[in-house]
UniProtKB/TrEMBL annotation:
Organism: Alkalihalophilus lindianensis
Keywords from the named record: Membrane, Transmembrane, Transmembrane helix
Keyword Iron: no
Keyword Transmembrane helix included in the entry's annotation: yes
Full protein name: ABC-2 type transport system permease protein
Domain of life: Bacteria
Transmembrane spans: 12-36, 42-67, 88-118, 138-167, 174-196, 239-262
Coiled coil segments of this chain: none
Length: 268
């Protein structure tokens, strides 16, 4: 366990540049949006818009973090694989480091967003139509969905990176990259096709869990003359336990395959 913890500390330290780049980029864009927004009288609304965009991009944060972390290991692969830990230990350390980085990033983005929206003119309209409990509910389930999607995306990055390494042992860089790209397209086409079949529906559409009557969307419209208008849409939200179980098993299967490739095909 101590070996894994030490590896995690190393991954966090080596991941600092990958962590800082999007944070600095986000703050720079916030400064630009705030400057031009302030000149036109809607600085806080402009910042809220930047935050909404950043939250959407957060869904791919783990994939971004893992890609650059694995790419850094490509230059010194023999040193990384020299660790006494098995493949799942090596990859899980990177995954946890990415989750820690993503959590800090989410807190920074969320804090700026919360402060901006409470200072904006739209806040009065928000509190008029939406209770504090409803906002917390949307934040909780939205955050959970964000992290689940991010975890689902990152296992694909790990798998395709291992496929690229495996192909790199057999052919030069260009052809290995090209075949990896083809495998990415083929795999997603297959997954997309399978998700439309009756078999997929039977595997996933069972165990409906109803979350009750919740806000489904919040739309803001800001203009120089009309101020800020807010429109909300509510409805009964539910999800299938079967879908959650299927996606979890599928992600774990991809992770196991990735570890097997690293242990048996790359590390040899």
């Amino acid at each position: 366990m101590s070996v894994w913890v030490n590896l995690l500390k190393k991954e966090i330290r080596l991941g600092i540049p990958t962590f800082l780049v999007p944070i600095i980029g986000f703050l720079v864009i916030c400064a630009i949006a705030g400057y031009f927004g302030n000149r036109n009288g809607f600085m806080w609304e402009a910042l809220v818009g930047v935050v909404v965009l950043a939250i959407g991009l957060q869904a791919f944060y783990l994939a971004y973090y893992m890609f650059f972390s694995l790419q850094a290991e490509h230059k010194k692969l023999h040193l990384w694989l020299h660790s006494p830990l098995p493949a799942y230990g090596l990859l899980s350390a990177k995954l946890v480091a990415g989750l820690i980085s993503m959590l800090i990033t989410t807190i920074i983005v969320g804090s700026i967003g919360l402060f901006s929206i409470t200072q904006s003119e739209m806040w009065g309209g928000v509190t008029e139509y939406i209770s504090t409990f409803q906002l917390m509910e949307v934040g909780l389930y939205g955050g959970l969905a964000l992290y689940l999607f991010s975890l689902s995306a990152v296992v694909w990055v790990m798998l395709f990176w291992m496929i690229f390494l495996l192909l790199s042992k057999l052919m030069n860089g260009f052809f290995s990259f090209a075949l990896t790209a083809v495998s990415v397209i083929a795999m997603f086409l297959f997954v997309g096709w399978f998700s439309l079949t009756n078999v997929f529906a039977r595997l996933t559409e069972w165990g409906e869990i109803k979350l009750g009557h919740m806000i489904q969307s919040i739309d803001f419209e800001t203009s120089l003359t009309g101020g800020t208008e807010i429109a909300t849409e509510t409805g009964n939200i539910s999800f299938y336990f079967g879908t959650l179980l299927y996606e979890t098993i599928f992600a774990l299967a991809l992770f196991v395959i990735t570890c097997w490739i690293l242990d048996r095909k790359i590390e040899v």
